[in-house]
Request: fold
Amino acid sequence: MLQIKVLGPGCANCKRLEQEVREALSDSAIEYEIIKVTDYADIMAYNILSTPGLVMNETVVSAGRIPKRPQILEWAKQFQQS
Reply:
């Protein structure tokens, strides 16, 4: 199962990123779980400079922006295979 973490304090962009991830993967056969990481110390452990952050299987794939759905799906496919 693909583990996806959305890093951020719960701001509008963080919520939007979570929604984009759900939309991007809604029609795929990829099994995933989304974990919201809101604790500042936990976010800083991923060494990102700005939120929202997106982590797949403990690898940071995006920080400080909301990636497009096709990119999210591409990353998910790559990390599902590894």
Summary: The chain has a mean pLDDT of 96. The domain at 2-81 is CATH 3.40.30.10 (Glutaredoxin).
